[in-house]
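Sat 14:20. Reprocessing the chain from the morning session after the first attempt stalled halfway. Input below, unchanged.
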Amino acid sequence: MTTSQEELLPATRRALLHRLAVAQSEGRAPSMVAAVVRDGRAVWHGARTSVDGQVPDENVQYRIGSITKTFTAVLVLRLRDEGLLDLGDRLEKHLPGTSAGEATIAELLAHTSGLAAESPAPWWERSPGSLRPGLADVLGEQPFLHPAGRRFHYSNPGYTLLGALVERLRGAPWEDVLRREVLQPLGLDRTSARPSSSHAGGWAVHPWADVLLPEPAEDLGRMAPAGQLWSTTGDLARFAVFLAQGDERVLSAETVREMRAPAAPAEAADVANGVTYGLGLQIQHGDGRLLVGHSGSLPGFLANLTLSVEDDVAAVVLANCTSGPLLATVGADLVRIVAEAEPRIPEPWRPLPEVDPSVLELAGQWYWGTYAFGLRLTGGGGVSLEPLSGKGRGARFRANGDGTWTGLEGYYAGELLRPVRRADGSLSHLDLGSFVFTRQPYDETVEVPGGVDPEGWRGIG
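Finished this time. Tokens:
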């Protein structure tokens, strides 16, 4: 008998509602909405509000702040996948005339360009974008604070430049390109650059009293690609599915996997906290779980999208207050609640439909010097090489179609795995980036670099 995971168990749903209710109450948020995604669709929506009879649902818009950056990153990677740019290109090649042209596109995506975190005064989030009509107004007189590529330093102007890059290469406004290339294909009909009915109002909550102050909702103008968007839990739930699986109409699964990979050097505090940044996505490791996504904030609003690919669970949390609840913590807790209460049920094991005998011959135990490894065939024609001790350098490899494989991760990422055969066609050894793997430790029948002592293995009397 199979078990359906389409609906969450009542106890799980209550635990989710309890966590949301505690966050809204203790964080003193005028309203808070959330969604949980599993198996590629939303399986729970929750809401708490301070206004009786006006409970927001999954279609009510909230401003999502810097989650906008992830959408902008998707547009840039589409340009890369189409061959219109390379991530190693300097900005000047495609967007000449800025004072930040020496930064590469990859550095801008990963916040490692060295650019300042904010634009020059006045505070851009609470002032009209018309005050910064050009990129020079966004960058200021001294745009760089750090050497490029040396450290992670979050930069809103950096994503403004990426939005301008999209506009230059597409010949259309960022907002129009986003709608045509991402929002419409993914069915995100309630995500927009400006609010539409119904939407939440943004509030500031007094830190020492239970009173409110309305926050302005400014159009960010040039800086829109860094934080302009409004969205809903329903739309962001669908966007979370895309970030986990990809969608060939927008980005392939391989490219969204690239977005989720660390791309920024971590400082000591980041290492301690288990946080880093990918290409338009925040990455955090904690409590044995790898989480990717993004948080956002603008005056009057907080937002978070958190995804655990391994657990196949994502959470979206939105609130209409300037500060108070820690939505990244809430999102991580919602993911944890579902992942622990209802662990992912794996697909049934099935044998491979076919296997090449010359590939099957590679399976089994191999030695790099005296280190023991096991090579296993995986789906899609790939292989994995793992240390039998459970510790050490292991990796998955994808087939290249010519009898070789390329490493996908860790120490062996990008390295070539090549079977070496003798003149009679028999298998001699494996060559992995010049390392020789043999069937026996220092096999004397194989040309091991440095040679093998002719007296062989011995004891000491």
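Confidence is low (pLDDT under 50) at residues 1-5.
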